[in-house]
Specification:
With about 240 residues, chain A is α/β, with parallel strands linked by helices. Chain A has helices at about 20-30, 40-45, 65-80, 100-105, 120-125, 170-180, 210-215; strands at about 5-10, 35, 50-55, 85-90, 110-115, 140-145, 165, 190-195, 205-210, 225. Chain A folds into two domains: about 5-115, Cobalt-precorrin-4 Transmethylase, domain 1, CATH 3.40.1010; about 120-230, Tetrapyrrole methylase, C-terminal domain (Methyltransferase, Cobalt-precorrin-4 Transmethylase, Domain 2), CATH 3.30.950. Chains A, B: Its EC number is 2.1.1.107.
């Protein structure tokens, strides 16, 4: 056992066991210990052939002390095990608090490698067969989250791209829709709302911006909201 | 052999053979025919155990008739083979002309499934160990391309997100930098320029927005430019 192990920040992808990368799957099989998020599915953990499994899940709303605890756990694990995997839902570098974990590991002199994952937005686009960009219609897409409460006047926080993808976009997406309408976006702008992408309980709903502004009937599970003219259904597209 | 086969639009990821998804790798192994882009690497094609391999690469600048030819080839292949894979660099739903291929296949009554891939931006973030979002600094990121020539006055085309990622961003990124400076962005805004992400000849350069506006020393290969305050190097970050 080496004095200090190596840590791999690995993206698990959206949930389905076979939507992790080949490299990520190999690292899970070889890992001595895997620290995993609440968003990682049980079937994904079956790929960990020999690892000690440590849940470090946080759900939105818990205080940030939890992140400091995870940072400390990562450093501790790297001092005990040769191959440490930190498995994160989606991609580690998008909305994954990777900066804090990288900073803590680097300060402790621990070697880190990042393995990308399928971020929910592209998995959602695949599931809905709805490209995020479209020639002549959409050549830019933004991925964003909102920490503002509905009703707050924060128009500047909505990106100016052709396609908008709001992560963790339940109540927050309703506020976004209200602001976009106030900014003059077409009420008929097509919207896709996706839950539990790539999982057995996946749900995909097609609505309009005006409908989104009135509320969402999808309170459970991680919700992703995609909107813009590129979200229009094709003439012969299967639902 | 069925009357009509099924087509899988599969994301190859950034190039490294093990950065395709497990599902994508399995489909390549099972495919009867694989139509692949110019951006797909030879080592990726080694995963095609039995398939007829058809290059359908287009490079930027070729006329769009090439896309119509690819659409027709896909329909023809689905009438000849049971399992057809259309293998695209990165992710099929981001800057991949997927809308045109899906429309053509659906019009011909052919079943299509999309398998997401690692888009270059997240592979680049992983390679540089540089998260695209960062708590308190960047909660939005845009992926975009520019079809405008340098010097054109098209300020509206630059998204308003915290982090900007310009795909195919060689000369175009220089124009973007000039426009951002004109809009008042800090000249010291950190910029990462990445070439051939995940491949043996990968190159990563750290510059500033002011330096980018003066030009790029990276004329070859697909160039990705990432910029914004979240691109600042950490104190103990390895280069």
């Amino acid at each position: 056992m080496p004095a200090v192990g190596k840590v791999f920040l690995v993206g698990a992808g959206p949930g389905a066991r076979d939507l992790i990368t080949v490299r990520g799957a190999r690292l899970l099989g070889e890992a001595d210990v895997v620290l995993y998020d609440a968003l990682v599915t049980p079937e994904m953990l079956e790929l960990c052939a020999q690892a000690v499994l440590i849940p470090v899940g946080k759900r939105a709303g818990q205080r940030s002390a939890a992140q400091e605890h995870i940072n400390a756990q990562l450093v501790d694990c790297a001092r005990q095990y040769a191959r440490v995997v930190r498995l994160k839902g989606g991609d580690p570098m998008l909305f994954g608090r990777a900066d804090e974990e990288l900073t803590a590991l680097e300060a402790a002199g621990i070697d880190v490698e990042v393995v990308p994952g399928i971020t929910t937005a592209v998995a959602a686009a695949a599931a809905a067969r709805q490209p995020l960009t479209k020639r002549g219609v959409a050549r830019s897409v933004a991925f964003f989250t909102s920490s503002t409460a509905p009703g707050e006047d924060d128009l500047a926080a909505i990106p100016s791209t052709d396609t908008l993808v709001q992560y963790m976009g339940g109540r927050e997406a309703i506020a976004t829709a209200q602001r976009l309408l106030a900014q003059g976006r077409r009420p008929e702008t097509p919207v896709l709302v996706l839950e539990n992408v790539s999982r057995p309980d996946e749900r995909i709903a097609r609505i309009t911006l005006a409908q989104l502004a009135l509320g969402l009937d999808t309170p459970h599970g991680p919700v992703l909201v995609m909107l813009g003219e590129a979200m229009a259904a094709r003439a012969q597209q299967p639902t």
